[in-house]
Amino acid sequence: MVRSLILLGLVGFAAQLVDGSLGMAYGVTSTTLLLAIGTNPAAASATVHLAEIGTTLASGISHWRFDNVDWKVIAKIGIPGALGAFAGATFLSSLSTEVAAPIMSIILLALGVYILVRFTAFGLSRDNLGKPLRKRFLAPLGLFAGFIDATGGGGWGPVGTPALLASGRIPPRKVIGSIDTSEFLIAIAASIGFFVGLGSENIDFAWVAVLLAGGVIAAPIAAWLVRHIPPRILGSAVGGLIILTNTRTLLRSDWVDAPGNVQTIAYVAIAVIWAAAVAYSVREYRRHKEQESVEAIEAELRRREAEEPTPA
Questions:
Q1: Which interval of the chain is the signal sequence (predicted)?
Q2: What averages of pLDDT result for each successive group of 10 residues across the chain (312 residues)?
Q3: pTM here?
Q4: What is residue 257's predicted lDDT score, i.e. its pLDDT?
């Protein structure tokens, strides 16, 4: 029991490091790690969402105080998202472990691929802006993202954030603040759905408390990491971990039941791609830093030339 609680504390710690550094993937990371230590899929998602009630509340208050929240967006995306999360939680609760584990792993695997590709290829680019933001777009987006978040144990940020960034109508800081704040509604709705589907006797509240405690401890460290570890590199590393872990779950499931040699080949291939992605992210990060340094020097030289007095 003590060993399990220590593992859970480390899971919460690691997940918050990721989320605090990237602005997403707390649910994806923590659910992936909970599945890896043998937790029931529905119980894993329920545990994560209960812990997220505390973490998202704290995050929402912080964003509100820094004026990073668009309350109209929260109402339009958060309420449908809560409905989707409730539906996803009750759906997942109704599935057997043998069926639920592969379904959750497929969703997490897709999100892991998205995180790996997004941060490796594009980093934190804000260039994909300009699409019109329509009211009829936000409700379906929230419904879909909420459903994926509950059934996959995470996904509100990875689905919602890039979609709103692409709208071009909301400043990036308010996109992140609004998504983080509205996730409080998603966590509550999903938790209620799991209570309805699982019952409170199937949820270990000690696990929830330890997971939450690990996240609280990691929060200030994550803030430090944001300043010292490039999100592009961290995103590539985390995406690869999620892909590797959920591929392992799928290959060992009753759906696939792959032979040992096939599993080994798959793990080696993923590891090679993962290492290449991290190396590429490191190279691109250094290249951009060098380019920024050159541009800064050129700008300073132009400034000095402009300030030099003109000969009489």
A1: none
A2: 80 78 74 81 89 83 81 91 95 83 85 86 60 74 92 83 71 78 93 88 83 81 66 82 85 86 94 95 91 87 77 58
A3: 0.72
A4: 85
Residues contacting 56, CB < 8 A, separation 6+:
180, 181, 183, 184, 186, 187
Q: What are phi and psi of 310, to 5 degrees?
A: -80, 130
The string of pLDDT tens digits covering residues 9-67 is 888 888 877 776 666 778 887 888 888 777 888 888 898 999 989 878 877 887 788 78
Q: What is the spatial distance between Cα 276 and Cα 278, in angstroms, rounded to a whole number?
A: 6
- Tell me the two tokens of residue 215: 């996240």
Q: How far apart are CA 47 and CA 207, in angstroms?
A: 7
Burial of 184 (0-12, 13-18, 19+ CB in 10 A): buried
Q: Which of 273, 252, 265, 264 is nearest to 35 (CA)?
A: 252
Both tokens assigned to 237: 């590393």
How many other C-beta atoms are found inside a 10 Å radius of the C-beta of residue 74? 22
- As given in the structure block, the two tokens for residue 89 are 């939680």
8 A C-beta contact, residue 18 and residue 29: yes
Rounded CA-CA distance 120/106 in Å is: 21
